[in-house]
Amino acid sequence: MHANVTYRHQPDASPHPQVVGEQVSGSTNRKIAIPKRSATQSTRIELSRPKVGQSSEPLALTYQQAADALQVSVSTIKRRVKDGDLTAVMIGSLPRILRASIQQLLGEH
Predict the structure, then answer these.
(1) In which domain, by residue range, is 85 found?
(2) Which of 6, 71, 81, 96 could pair covalently with 60 via S-S, beta carbons 3.0-4.6 A apart?
């Protein structure tokens, strides 16, 4: 003979186990204890990127970002890369223009 088992879920509770249901089989009673999390525990993880150098500006830009920064078209950026005026690197399968090469082109370095 089996009795009904009820389960209750509460996301915020004390860290002490609490009986959430009973199962009766024959003459043996078994209590199921499930520990609960307290309301002060958090599962949120804060991630932050480490700062590289003094600036928070990216070290490499997409073709579109480089074009926007220089106020030119993307085709001009591609032409400058092809001519060797700008340095492009592949990060995975994505081409990026090095910020240092843009600064060098502008004579800032």
Answers:
(1) 60-105
(2) 96
What is residue 87's predicted lDDT score, i.e. its pLDDT? Answer: 92
Kindly report the pTM of this predicted structure. Answer: 0.49
Phi and psi at 100, nearest 5°, equal -60, -35
83: pLDDT strictly greater than 90: yes
Q: Is the residue at 50 inside a domain?
A: no
Query: In this model, does residue 10 exceed pLDDT 60?
Result: no
Query: Quick one: which of 95, 79, 64, 90 has its CA closest to 105?
Result: 79
Q: Which helix (H) or strand (E) holds 32?
A: strand 28-34
Residue 48 forms part of a structural domain: no
Pairing of strands 28-34, 18-25: antiparallel
Distance of alpha carbon 64 from alpha carbon 72, whole angstroms: 9
Q: 48-80, pLDDT tens digit by residue?
A: 666 655 567 889 999 999 999 999 999 999 999
Does residue 45 lie in a domain region? no
**Residue 96: strand, helix, or coil:** strand
In a domain, 49, yes or no: no
